[in-house]
Specification:
Helix content is about 45%, strand content about 10%. The chain is an alpha/beta fold. Helix 2 runs antiparallel to helix 3, helix 2 packs parallel to helix 4 and helix 4 runs antiparallel to helix 6. The relative contact order is 0.13. Keywords: Membrane, Transmembrane, Transmembrane helix. InterPro entries: Alkaline_phosphatase_core_sf. This is Sulfatase N-terminal domain-containing protein. It comes from Flavobacterium franklandianum.
Length: about 475
């Protein structure tokens, strides 16, 4: 049996027959499983799976088969094998890096040319060896993808269950609610501190003039937009372990979650308005009644970061045209953001601080504009300006925060976040005196709206958690405890 397999394998390698379909399948399959294993939370919808099957495997098979047939019928028929091999060498890096990245880098172009020349001159006269090599390369991403799938099926979702009957909460007052999330807006303590060294008193004075309550000690419970928001909208801790039955953070934030269910149970319309479709890229099942992005306009090969819409006019239109309903708006503004994510040669913490503070100025200008707009059209509304996490100033780049950080100021820079709420009711102080972290934000809001203080008995721990292994989000540590230490 073993000899038979070995003989067939040797026959495949050494016979004169060409296998353009298998060659195309090998490079397409490797590129697809590599992409899926590194971006599964972005591409786990059936629609995307079908697209990538066609994009990677279908396209590469079609290209190699078509060109090989064309060459076979030409006077260059004896070069079919070489053509298949060169196409494999060209298609694979195009899939992995993109044409623009390759053409924009002399180093990548040079390496590609050297690789093709070297393989042609020396070893790879027979492209079938390269087919075998590509399939062997596929083993690692296939195993990684298998681990992701197993992890999804085996991971429990009990953390999503509520500890009380909050889902049955009935509001006694029903103002429109605007949850405005300026991404990465650092908390007041951070901005005043030595790392940021920024005077934000003019903006805070504006907020106080507009009757906002400021929460200078507020912070997020997790370090990223996805982890922070999934915890916030479920009002529960997931300990960075929310992946379950192929429901990822985007599915939890945009799809059915306790916060949206409670609003809908109280006859609220729900609106998701965002500058970027970052939370929509895996096409989660939409539970909001309105979104300013439609799935058919979203690109497939993107994380949604480069697709931007102006949202101020959209917000105004939705306010003006929905005056007869009770409304909840979740508005994402991607300013100030945080410092740069990755390390570059010219990166340093001072340059990142200056750039970040410039973005704070931009965010402040827009927030003033939107607060005035809401007040003009909806004076009785509750307006929540609540950031998802801090600005990471003090690091050279944001991914440094995934190392085990012990410096108190740096930890605060990760989690310390801006929160200001215009309640339009002095009785809010009976409900929000213990509000410290985002996991308890909506529980506080619902307690206030229902005038039910028993909901406050089930506050989640105010601890903040950080990952220390970017390849395994089950490994987390308590960066700040429930007492702020």
């Amino acid at each position: 049996m073993i000899l038979n397999i070995k003989d067939r394998f040797n026959d495949f390698l050494n016979n004169s027959k060409d296998y353009p379909i298998l060659a195309g399948f090998s490079v397409g399959f490797y590129a697809m499983v590599f992409y899926f294993s590194n971006n599964f939370d972005l591409v786990n919808s059936w629609e995307q799976i079908l697209f990538f099957l066609l994009y990677y495997i279908g396209a590469s098979v079609a290209v190699l088969f078509s060109i090989s047939k064309i060459i076979q019928k030409s006077k260059y028929a004896r070069f079919v094998s070489q053509a298949i091999f060169i196409l494999m060498i060209l298609i694979l890096p195009i899939y992995l890096f993109g044409i623009s990245n390759i053409l924009g880098s002399y180093k990548k172009l040079g390496l590609l040319a050297i690789l093709i020349l070297g393989l042609l001159i020396f070893k790879m006269k027979n492209y079938k060896y390269f087919i075998v090599l590509v399939f062997l390369m596929s083993v690692i991403p296939v195993l990684k993808l298998g681990k992701i799938i197993y992890f999804n099926y085996s991971n429990a979702a009990e953390w999503q269950n509520q500890p009380d009957a909050i889902l049955n909460t009935k509001f006694k007052k029903s103002p429109n609610i605007y949850y405005i999330q300026p991404d990465g807006y650092a908390g007041d303590i951070n901005l005043k501190g030595s790392l940021y060294n920024y005077d934000n008193s003019a903006f805070d004075a504006f907020l106080k003039e507009k009757k906002f309550t400021l929460y200078p000690d507020y912070r997020s419970n997790y370090e990223s937009t996805l982890f922070s928001n999934s915890s916030c909208f479920f009002m529960k801790h997931h300990f960075s372990n929310e992946f379950s039955k192929f429901r990822y953070a985007r599915d939890l934030i945009i799809g059915e979650n306790p916060v949206l269910k409670i609003f809908k149970n109280n006859n609220y319309k729900t609106f998701f308005i965002s500058e970027r479709p970052y939370l929509l890229m895996n096409r989660p099942k939409m539970y909001y009644d309105y979104s300013n992005f439609k799935y058919d306009e979203l690109p497939y090969l993107s994380d949604g970061w480069s697709f931007i819409k102006e949202i101020t006019k959209t917000i105004e239109i939705q306010i003006v045209t929905n005056t007869k309903s009770n409304n909840f708006f979740f508005i994402e503004k991607f300013k100030p953001g945080h410092i740069g994510t990755y390390k570059f040669a010219e990166t340093n913490k001072e340059k990142e601080r200056i750039k970040y503070l410039e973005n704070v100025e931009i965010a402040n200008h827009w927030l003033k504009q939107i607060v005035v707009l809401i007040e003009k059209n909806d004076p009785e509304a509750i307006i929540i300006i609540g950031a998802d996490h801090g600005g990471f100033v003090g690091f050279d780049y944001a991914l440094q925060s995934q190392e085990k950080v012990t410096d108190k100021l740096l930890i605060q820079s990760i989690f310390g976040a801006k929160l200001a709420i215009k309640w339009n009711d002095l009785k809010h102080s009976e409900y929000d005196s213990k509000l410290k972290t985002s996991v308890n934000l909506f529980r506080t809001v619902f307690s206030f709206l229902s005038e039910d203080k028993t909901l406050l008995n089930h506050f989640q721990s105010d601890a903040s958690y950080n990952c220390y292994d970017p390849t395994d989000f089950t490994k987390v540590y308590k960066a700040i405890d429930e007492n702020g230490n």
